[in-house]
Recover the amino acids of this structure.
């Protein structure tokens, strides 16, 4: 067994390492600065385990007589930190924490995280490291190696890596919660890993001049809550050193376990198949047989676009190998490190090829579009659902899934515990929740807010307008799950039509839903890369305006006389019903008498400048009026939103960058 040593590396803080809505995202060149990644990883490890550090301190301070005699290897450690550890206690899985610095140790991204944790929590700390993108570039591999080495340096007992470093965000969440075939007696927390560093910038473009990101997920499989991310940020401001180990690089292309001997004992790096755990989970949720019948039916045509993200690896396994779809139904399903130069965000603007194939672009292809199309983002947690020449808004999608889940998806056959949506997401889900008498929650933007509700058994299905849909099977949104949910609904509605009879289409499912529940016309305008100061001023102006509704209504009626009155305006604030934590400043809302809403918020996922998001929604109950074009229907409210916010005046922009 190869032995390794642990060392401390002095460092100084970097500005701006505040995790956003979903981890730390910056340009690659920012991450490439020496110690930039290491500082963040160490700050994260330091944010996670204070009690473990204290236990270690007590051990050293209170029980010096129990200190084991020095192992030769420990004695030769340049740190002289570990001489007091009793190896037999470590083998029993004791939580031994080295004060302060013991938990981190560092060198490169995947290969650095592991050694740091070995030092302070040995057998009770299993860390899982995954990343979404194609890690074949030397610097990407380096990034993994940095984290593995830091894990070893910090006392992590073992690191799990998806083969080639590839794992989708939902697969990471699934694997943290349950790794199939693992000797659970080795994991202190049952079959769960302790957490995960996910290396992704999600839907942001990739490549040397684009974005990189890292986020930490907790033992429940969900993103770190604000309490932890705030601590991480505080740590990044004061960090002075990090821990790393001279663990040799592991071949992350080869499945298997490589073990090393550190100052405190064994450290394992296990490379495993990226898809099998996830596939098994999907099979336990959905009726694959009925979906297979649908997909293999001559009448049903299908198209899936992974936008060259990691979803491609799962799409082939699930849609083609398991469910019998044609290989030709997969578009851009080879993961690429730069997403083929594209923007891996599944919306009508960026998923151009799919949009054209589905007959939705102006230059209609001649071929008849498929019945169903879907796309995913870079790390495969987002989804876009399309029918033939038809777009399903994410807000409608979650409402329709919730309305049909109990009938169409075996996992939900006993009914839903409750449903939830983010604040800017349309109220389509609210209407379903009311009808089905389900518990309902409105949370701030960011998937992490759903996790607490799910852990408390309060929420089964949830979704966001930002193309995120999911359930309590994991603690992340799940792009492939959403597609399987839709295929399940289609299979259920068509179970008697596959032989003869006309297929019920995606469009019909949505229109029938509107006829039953009413329609929430919805659109989002994004103003990307706006000057950060100007964006702040616009938001401050909107908050100030809220103090006088009379003044607001005067402005509104001056712009359009055909919209209803603003009856309430506020900054959204959320009190978590489970842990009581409060999240303030979660977006500015203007609520109208007829149920219409305007919401303004600043994006938390950009890496440059500011992005202003404007969400516009109008409810139409009258089933004879639910078939309009949404931009036409919303035109008056759009005019009001732009006028009220003085969008052009503040930002200099006469049009949004993206409309969804
Ligand atoms: C990420 C999160 C989502 C969230 C979205 C918001 O994708 O995982 O939960 O809805 O960011 O992004 P924004 O750019 O609007 O802050
Ligand atoms: Zn994503």
């Amino acid at each position: 067994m190869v032995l390794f040593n642990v060392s401390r590396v002095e460092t100084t803080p970097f500005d701006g390492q505040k995790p956003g809505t979903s981890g730390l995202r910056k340009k690659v060149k920012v991450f490439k600065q020496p110690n930039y990644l290491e500082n963040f990883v160490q700050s994260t490890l330091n944010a996670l385990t204070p009690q473990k550090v204290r236990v270690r301190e007590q051990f050293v301070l209170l029980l010096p007589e129990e200190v084991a005699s020095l192992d030769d290897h420990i004695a030769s450690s340049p740190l002289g930190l570990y001489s007091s550890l009793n190896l037999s206690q470590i083998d029993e899985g004791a939580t031994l924490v080295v004060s302060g610095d013991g938990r981190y140790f560092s060198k490169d991204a995947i290969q650095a995280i592991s050694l740091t944790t070995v030092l302070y929590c040995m057998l009770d700390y299993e860390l899982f490291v995954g990343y979404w993108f194609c890690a074949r570039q030397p610097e990407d591999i380096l990034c993994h190696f940095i984290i593995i080495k830091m894990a070893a340096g910090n006392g992590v007992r073992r690191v799990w890596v998806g083969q080639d470093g590839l794992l989708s965000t939902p697969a990471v969440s699934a694997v943290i919660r349950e790794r199939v075939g693992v000797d659970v007696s080795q994991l202190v927390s049952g079959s769960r890993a302790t957490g995960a560093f996910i290396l992704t910038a999600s839907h942001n473009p990739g490549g040397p001049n684009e974005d990189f990101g890292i986020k930490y997920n907790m033992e429940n499989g969900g993103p770190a809550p604000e309490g932890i991310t705030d601590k991480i940020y505080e740590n990044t401001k004061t960090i002075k050193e990090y821990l790393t180990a001279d663990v040799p690089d592991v071949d992350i292309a080869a499945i298997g376990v490589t073990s090393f001997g550190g100052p405190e004992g064994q450290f394992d790096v296990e490379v495993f198949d990226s898809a099998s755990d996830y596939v098994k989970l999907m099979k336990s949720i959905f009726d694959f047989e009925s979906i297979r019948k649908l997909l293999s039916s001559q009448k049903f045509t299908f198209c899936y676009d992974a936008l060259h993200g990691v979803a491609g690896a799962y799409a082939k396994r699930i849609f083609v190998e398991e469910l019998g779809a044609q290989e030709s139904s997969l578009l851009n399903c080879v993961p690429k490190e730069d997403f083929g130069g594209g923007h891996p965000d599944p919306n009508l603007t960026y998923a151009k090829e799919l949009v054209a194939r589905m007959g939705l672009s102006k230059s209609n292809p001649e071929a008849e579009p498929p019945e169903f199309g879907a796309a995913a983002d870079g790390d495969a947690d987002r989804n876009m659902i399309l029918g033939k020449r038809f777009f399903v808004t994410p807000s409608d999608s979650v409402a329709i899934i919730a309305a049909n889940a109990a009938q169409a998806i075996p996992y939900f056959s006993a009914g839903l515990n409750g449903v939830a949506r983010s604040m800017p997401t349309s109220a389509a889900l609210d209407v379903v929740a009311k009808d089905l008498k389900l518990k309902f929650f409105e949370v701030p933007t960011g998937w992490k807010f759903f996790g607490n509700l799910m852990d408390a058994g309060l929420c089964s299905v949830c979704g966001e307008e930002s193309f995120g849909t999911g359930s309590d099977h994991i603690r992340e949104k799940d792009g492939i799950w959403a597609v399987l949910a839709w295929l399940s609904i289609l299979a259920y509605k068509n179970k008697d039509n596959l032989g003869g009879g006309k297929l019920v289409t995606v469009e019909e499912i949505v229109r029938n839903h509107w006829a039953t529940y009413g329609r929430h016309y919805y659109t989002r305008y994004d103003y990307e890369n706006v000057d950060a100061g100007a964006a702040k001023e616009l938001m401050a102006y909107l908050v100030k305006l809220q103090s006088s509704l009379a003044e607001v209504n005067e402005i509104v009626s001056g712009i359009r006389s055909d919209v209803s009155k603003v009856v309430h305006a506020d900054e959204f604030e959320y009190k978590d019903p489970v842990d009581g934590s409060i999240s303030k400043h979660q977006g500015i809302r203007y609520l109208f008498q007829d149920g219409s809403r305007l919401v303004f918020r600043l994006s938390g996922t950009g890496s440059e400048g500011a992005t202003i998001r404007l969400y516009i929604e109008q409810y139409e109950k009258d089933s004879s009026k639910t078939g309009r074009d949404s931009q036409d229907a919303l035109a008056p409210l759009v005019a009001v939103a732009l006028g009220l916010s003085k969008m052009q005046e503040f930002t200099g922009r006469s049009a949004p960058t993206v409309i969804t």
Summary: Residues 50-126, 130-141 have pLDDT under 50 and may be disordered. Residues 21-22, 202, 422, 445-447, 464, 466, 468, 603-605, 613 surround 6-O-phosphono-alpha-D-glucopyranose (ligand 1) (CB under 6 Å).
